[in-house]
Amino acid sequence: MDIPGLPARRAALKLLDAVLRRGETLDQAAHNAVQGIAADADRQLARAIAAEALRWLPDLDALIDSATREPLPDDAKPRAVLRLMLAQWLRLGTPPHAVVATALPLLMGGPKRLAHGVFATLTRREASLPAHPSLPAAVAARWGDRAGAIAAALALPPALDLTLKDAGETAQWVERLGGLSLAPGHVRLPRGEAVERLPGFGEGAWWVQDLAASLPARLLGPGAGTALDLCAAPGGKALQLAAAGWQVTALDASAKRLERLRDNFARMALPVEVVVADVQDWEPQERFDAILLDAPCTATGTCRRHPDVLHRITPTHIRGMAELQQRLLARTAGWLNPGGRLVYAVCSQEREEGEDIAAGVALTPLPIRAEELPAGLSPTPEGWLRTDPGMLPEAGGLDGFFIARWQA
Ligand SMILES: C[S@@+](CC[C@H](N)C(=O)[O-])C[C@H]1O[C@@H](n2cnc3c(N)ncnc32)[C@H](O)[C@@H]1O
Question: Which residue positions does the secretion signal occupy (predicted)?
Fold first, then answer.
């Protein structure tokens, strides 16, 4: 029989391994790793341990290396177990004796004695982590002069952002939910509350959507005809377009994710036409007044929520995504009615997926203006928008996005 708490630690070890060795996302890996764990709390604990280990990996490794004579190989099992032990102790507040009792049984023999010794050394020294996580060196190099601000934002879990169906009711919902608003139709709450229990969920008054993720649809303006939302599922941006009065066609390659989109539209009582297709070979029967291309991307702008992106995304992934994004945007640009608007968005922090893509588009730019954005954000000199988690620090930051807009 397993000792209590061990299955959650074993699952956390599987999660870490799936991300770091097989390049899976935490979400993909969670499906397999937590199979067989009955209690929801244990499944959540496994994920929390792995996520904190990934968020603080370079700092945890520095502590481990400070307590060993020879550095342990990067993929050695004792290093992986120590990463989890330290994440529990230093990030989740688990007392050291409980960490030892529940995680050390993952190892046997010499490796177990080694990990025990390193952990004992670090607890005796009262080791601590820096004020915020250090980025892996390759990531810090890619993010250049924004790396420090983004790293600072990584220390805190992101707030819970809601988008209201009726932006005219912003003040009422801010009061009712006890949050703050950074834009019309936006309410920000501290994370922690179960979403389904918040007032307004059942009645379809709002949906969960990061503030940055709500900006692309806002930049298409109030509904004035037909809108095509490409790569639309699960539908946060399509809901915004429908709520703004656009007649929305939502297209996505994943039938399963489109089921979630349909459920979301049903909950919000908004109309939508759904198309299951790949943007790479779909041929529209009509032209559109507005197109939103929320392209598939490396999602490195969501690193606060998904710290696995800090470790699995390589220059090869970024190049592959950039090629796909360029192909999708080139097709899409021909599907606008005269005078129609196209918005391109990615939740990536990488210039290859943002600025470099936008610079190659032949349509007429429709520069984003500061008045269209929440206070504290400003467009680039080219009229694009680049956000990252280090922006709006007093309000709790926002995801990293790149957004550009053109007119046919
Ligand atoms: C970032 S998510 C979109 C989020 C969505 N726009 C929202 O606001 O809720 C990316 C989506 O792109 C879809 N996708 C990826 N490649 C695609 C393609 N070639 N054609 C159509 N959809 C694609 C995926 O199935 C996924 O649902």
Answer: none
Identify the residue whose tokens are 């899976």: 24
Distance CA 47, CA 16 (A): 9
φ and ψ of 63, to 5 deg? -65, -45
* Model pTM score: 0.96
* Residues known to be catalytic: 347
CA of 235 to the centre of ligand 1 (A): 9
Residue type, 277: A
Q: 3-state DSSP call for residue 161?
A: strand
Residue ranges of domains in the chain, CATH in brackets: 6-124 (1.10.940.10), 159-209 (3.30.70), 212-407 (3.40.50.150)
| Ligand 1, pocket-test mutation among 231, 297, 348, most atoms within 8 A of CB | 231
DSSP annotation of 180? B
CB of 354 sitting under 6 A from ligand 1 = no
pLDDT, tens digit, 9 for 90 and up, residues 335-371: 999 999 999 999 999 999 999 999 999 999 999 999 9
